[in-house]
Amino acid sequence: MADLPFNPLRPYLQKTFGREVHRVALDAGSTCPNRDGAKGFGGCTYCDVEGSGTGELKSGTQLAQQLKDGIERVRKRDPETGVIAYFQSYSNTYVSQARLTEVLSVLEGHLGDPVVAVSIATRPDTLPPSALEILARLNERVPVWLEIGLEVADDKLLDSIQRFHTVEDFLVAVERVREVGIDVIGHAILGIPGDGREGARRTAECLAASGARGVKVHNLMILKRTQLEHQWRAGQVDVLSAEHYVDWLADFVERLHPDQILHRMTGDAPETERLAPRWDVSVNGIRHRLIQELVGRGTRQGSLHSLASGS
Ligand code: SF4
Fold this sequence. Notes:
The protein is of the alpha/beta class.
């Protein structure tokens, strides 16, 4: 593969696991403190009722069956593929110790082959020591990644999108997770109302300084059945054009740490659920535009990292 101006996920997976690896998204039926009232009701303004996930468990498909079906699906395309078991919906460590153990037990019999890694989405404020202990034990068997949302490095904006945690909460969470030897993937959203291009840069600098091993970023999207849908229909919020997103994404990537892995640069919500933007948000489309932009600038991932960190 030609030298790319950023570190994408695929070559990293190939190097780490020695084979192609595909994700199988799982819904463990968890909830989240932004929905059950512990922090708030209604969720983050951009999050749909399925908690940014598949909604599978609610439709009755049990977790073990979801995993089995997912493995069969990806292995039909590639019989040799490894699998990342991806607990995507809601805050997966916002459960009792017993429930987390029960959820992870579905991986038994699959760990190592085909499940080569386990990725778990959660929030900075739902990581009790008991959950970290359980995950650290699992991490001794296969790599565990904790996906933690920062979204935007600005406490006021975190409040405005109803995240109900702070930037400091995120930084402390990353530190605690790293202390038990688990890699963190930090999440960011570009184009949150009031953030602007400077905000995109600041969020990248925060993620670079955090010690997160990987980064997922996407542009703000308006999904059906979200609070943002109402704001968007009332003309109170807008989304970035493709040109602006690629410009800001290039700024963002330039400020990441040169070694961080860029796991994702666009959202993965189904097109039928997306009200805006309507331009091509496919991975290939964004990736191609980002390469063109960075090559045109003569920069790459991390080009501005040392300036930002002063190192
Ligand atoms: S984005 Fe995550 S933290 Fe926010 S409401 Fe959805 S599941 Fe909860």
